[in-house]
Amino acid sequence: MYLARVVGRVVATVKQDTLSGKPLQWLQPVDASGKDKGGAIVAVDPIGLGPGELCYYITAREASLTLWDTFAAVDAGIVGKVDRIDLEDRGQGAGGRGRGSVKKEK
Asked: What CA–CA distance (Å, rounded) separates 95 from 13?
């Protein structure tokens, strides 16, 4: 799974039948600190996010599993909304396991 920020909505008046009624979002992949990472992508959004929200998404064949119709032609699908990321720096430098680790909320 990957992190991204929703930067906009993609409007497509003509698309494959399996994507009918499914919103498409323009995502900017980001690293754990929120910095842009790579180029923007389009992903199907089965949960209804808006611009500026942080999400996690999957790619490749598994992306279609985000929809009820798993035979839909999608390359990326949003899996969930990220409410918060807690970074812990254990002082181990750039190669250390503590840098950039994501802590789960209890």
From this structure: 46
81, with CB counted inside 10 A (0-12, 13-18, 19+), is middle
In three-state secondary structure terms, 3 is: strand
User: Residues 44, 12: contact at Cβ < 8 Å?
Assistant: no
Distance CA 8, CA 25 (A): 6
Does domain 2-103 bear CATH number 3.10.20.340? no
3-class state of residue 66 by DSSP:
helix
What confidence tens digit (pLDDT) does each residue in 47-56 have? 999 999 999 9
Digit-coded pLDDT (tens) for 22-64:
999 999 999 988 899 999 999 999 999 999 999 999 998 888 8
Report CA torsion sign: 89, 93, 97, 100: positive
* CA–CA separation, 71 and 24 (whole Å): 17
